[in-house]
Structure formats: C-alpha cells, structure tokens
Amino acid sequence: MKYPVDSISQKIHESQSIAITSHLRPDGDSICTGLALYFMGKSLGKNVALVNKDNTPVPFNNFPDIENITIGQIPPSNYDIIILLECANVSRSGQVHLDDAFKINIDHHHSNDYYGDINWVDPEAPAVACLAYTLGEKLSIEFTPRISNLLYCAIVSDTGSFQFSNTKAQSFEVSYKLIKHGANPIKMSEMLFNNNSPEKIKLLGQVLSTLTMNEKGNIAIITMFKKNLEDLNLREIDTEDITTLARSIKDVEMVLFFKEMEKDTYRVSLRSKGNANSAMVAEHFGGGGHLHAAGFTALGNYEQLLRDIPQTVEKLIKSNPDNPST
Q1: Which of 88, 113, 149, 308 counts the most CB atoms within 10 A of its CB?
Q2: Residue of 38, 46, 43, 36 whose CA lies nearest to 14
Q3: By residue range, what is the domain housing residue 309?
Q4: Contact (Cβ atoms closer than 8 angstroms) between residue 108 and residue 123
C-alpha cells in the first residue's frame, strides 16, 4: 500500500520547481512549516518559492529567514507542483488560477475538501509541522538546526506551548528529535513569547478592560476594536496571549474574542478548555477549527452581536453531550 507521504516524496523528487503556500491569515504552524519545507526543497536542489496571500503577522515577521516569503499570487505555470498547507480548500489559500496545477494538499484539520492531486490529511497530527517532519525523513533530507528550529517553533506555536488539546505524544516525540537535530528551545521561546512592544502591552490592557461574562460565568467575552490598533499605531498583532489570559479565569469554559475587521464585521476567535467544543460552535456560525481553538466571522451591529452570540454559544455548550457541566 502506498501512503500519501510516499507519493508526495516521489513527486517532489521528480519535480524541479515547487511552490508552497498556506492559508489566509497565516499562523505560526503554517509560516514556520512553510519555511522549513522551503529549505528542505532547496537542500534537494529544487527551485522553490514560498508565496502567501496575506502578510506575515507579529512576531513571525521579525524571524530570521522571513524574507524568503513572498506576499502575493503564485504564477502556477512556473511550477511543477504546488504544496498547500492547512488549506481546507483552494480558496482558503487566497491563491487563484490553480485549477490546472498539480496540487499537494497537506493538512491536519478534520474539515478538508480533499481537492489535491495528492491529499495527506491527518487530523490526529498535532501540527502540520509533524507531517512535514515525516516528509523530511522520507525525503532523506538533513535536518539542519535551521530546519529543526522552524519545525520546533511551529509545534510550540500550534500547541500553545504544549497546552492546547492538540498536544499529544507525537508533539513531544517530534520535538525531542528536532532538539537532537539542533533545535534550540530557549531561543525559540524567546522569539515567540518575549518580543512584545510597549504598544502591545497597552493593547492587552485595553482589550482586557472590555471583559464581560455571561451570568453562569462559563463564557468570557473580550473585544478589540480597530480604533485600539489605530491609536497605538499597530497593524499586524499577535493576540493569542490576550485570549489565553481570559481563558485562565476560573470556571471559564470558552472565550469569545471579537476583533473588528470593518464596520459591522467581526472576526470571532474561540478558545476553550475541557470538553467545551470550539470547533462545534464555530461550525454553527459558518467557521471551523480545532476542539479548543476555532473561529468564525460575524456580521451585524456590535451590541446586537454581543447579546445574541454568547446566548447561542451558551446553549451550544449546554447541548454538547460530552460536556460534564451540562
């Protein structure tokens, strides 16, 4: 039986030019894994391009080697294969005109349309970086400290420093191997978590000051308005730690983080713990994600959304048969 990773390895060896891309609003897993695959391809003597539609967010925009990411569109005729990371479908990448391109779909989320010419979708994998590590072994590449640091950083980022529900034995197993290959956990943690600007800390205070709770005390709601970013002259900002602080409140099962994108348009990030299912809630509103980390877009008047959405979320949490608090 031929596994997807075998087919992908063979196709990469047969190809001369490779393009790599990831999902819109790229995160640490997709960014660092994309860079690791970029350097793996280069080590094999391939012509490789890493192209994302959206800009690289903080803190990753200050990482070494980030200049190897091109922001824009892939010209598909220039490449033998295109690797899409963590994209449930092609539109999730923001890339266009890929219909006739040979597409390799690598993902670790449940929701995937299996649109690739080769599909490697493993929802049991803690991060797409773990799949990339397996691919690197199959390709017989040398895991240099540079590649190892990137894959380690991807795993730490996506598991929330080994705190999220996708933290599994494989997370530690692959991380152990990467450290043996030269990954530096202290350096990566410094780059990931200790690079805040004074403006970021001020933003944290402003967002936390919006904190409200439902009557039961199991849902926390926080909001970041565009004005918060504009007043502090911030554009791209990592807000994961803000959500983590709200989620740390005793008895809170889920955090709803409203981020104003445009007038009457909000990106709602969900973070949960225990058996509270963020993915189920997000899917109810047309979004998706992991058990403990998901999101969706909400349209409408802010005050109305703030009344209606938490009420619906409370009902959804209560209806979940796997939640012992119901």
Answers
A1: 149
A2: 46
A3: 199-319
A4: yes
Q: What is the CATH number of the domain that holds 211?
A: 3.10.310.30
Rounded Cα distance between 280 and 283, Å, is: 5
pLDDT mean over 306-326? 82
| Residue 116: DSSP 8-state | S
Tokens of 215: 């009557």
Please tell me the total count of domains within the chain: 2
Q: Is residue 326 part of a domain?
A: no
The pLDDT, as a whole number, for residue 271 is 93
Domain boundary among 193, 226, 253: 193
Shared domain for 280 and 297, answered yes or no, is yes
Digit-coded pLDDT (tens) for 185-194: 999 999 998 8
Does 93 fall in a domain?
A: yes
- Say whether pLDDT at 324 is over 50: no
Instruction: Quick: pLDDT tens for 123-157.
Output: 999 999 999 999 999 999 999 999 999 999 999 99
